[in-house]
Inverse folding.
């Protein structure tokens, strides 16, 4: 936007249209009539077009004025909504933002996002739930969650939802240090050990299945289907289990040497992780602040090469 346009220009313009009179608009804004007339003239000079026609019946919009008026009203309404939202933070009756997150997001990103929000809007409360893609999208559609962060699911699972991509993530195959498969990490040998496998409700299940099919590996018979991060971490560290899991869930354990990622090409499992909301639903100050905090966290992680 042209930096010469100030808030007083837009406020005066909208009020003149509402009152259909420069005099009444000046009184409403506690200005002199020359001052509000000057604000309108400055705005018309900046945009290079006549915005209002003065007549005996009052002022009327020109076609260009009507176009600018429509967008100005929307902008001022959005600004007022944001100010009202910020003023509401910290009030006892303010409802928390209900956030659903896949385990990979909950473990990797949400602690940073919570810190970011606390620094910007300390009164904003979060209610965080993790779970499978199917569970979280059902809660979102049922209006029991306000926003979900996770992988884009199959088309039928995304019905009624809007998806905004944040970053790409792939599946990791991890084992404990010293696991017998490590000398020769061949996926065709995974049937020799227990496998922790994504269940039907997990967004990564069809992706993992396609990976195994491409390697000529049948669905493991000796498998435990689970989205429990706590169980997966503990069982993989303490046994010979082989765990198929989103890379973000185990990024810290891998960096600390607690788990080892099999050197198997899993680029085909890479998929979009993003924000999901109910399609067509008006945005809120809370959701917008959350999305902005998420963007800043991801930008930092991308700079450090973590996403």
């Amino acid at each position: 936007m042209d930096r010469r346009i100030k808030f007083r220009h837009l406020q005066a313009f909208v009020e003149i249209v509402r009152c259909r009179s420069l005099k009444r608009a000046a009184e409403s804004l506690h200005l002199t009539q020359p001052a509000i007339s000057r604000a309108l003239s400055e705005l018309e000079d900046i945009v290079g077009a006549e915005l209002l026609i003065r007549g005996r019946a009052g002022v009327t919009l020109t076609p260009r004025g009507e176009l600018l008026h429509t967008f100005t009203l929307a902008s001022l309404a959005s600004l007022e909504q944001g100010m009202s939202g910020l003023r509401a933070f910290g009030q006892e009756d303010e409802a928390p933002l209900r956030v659903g997150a896949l385990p990979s997001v909950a473990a990797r990103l949400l602690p940073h996002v919570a810190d970011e929000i606390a620094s910007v809007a300390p009164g904003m409360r979060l209610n965080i739930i993790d779970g499978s893609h199917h569970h979280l999208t059902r809660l979102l559609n049922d209006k029991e969650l306000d926003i979900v962060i996770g992988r884009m699911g199959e088309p039928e699972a995304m019905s009624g939802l809007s998806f905004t991509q944040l970053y790409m993530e792939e599946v990791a195959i991890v084992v404990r240090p010293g696991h017998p498969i490590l000398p020769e990490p061949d996926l065709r040998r995974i049937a020799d050990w227990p496998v922790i496998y994504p269940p039907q409700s997990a967004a990564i299940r069809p992706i993992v299945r396609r990976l195994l099919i491409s390697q000529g590996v049948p669905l493991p018979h000796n498998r435990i289907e689970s989205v429990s991060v706590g169980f997966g971490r503990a069982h993989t560290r303490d046994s010979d289990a082989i765990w198929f899991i989103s890379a973000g869930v185990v990024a810290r354990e891998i960096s600390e040497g607690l788990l080892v990622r099999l050197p198997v090409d899993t680029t085909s499992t890479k998929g979009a992780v993003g924000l999901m909301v109910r399609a067509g639903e008006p945005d809120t100050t809370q959701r917008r602040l959350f999305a902005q905090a998420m963007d800043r966290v991801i930008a930092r992680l991308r700079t450090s090469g973590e996403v």
Notes: The first strand starts at residue 52 and ends at 55.
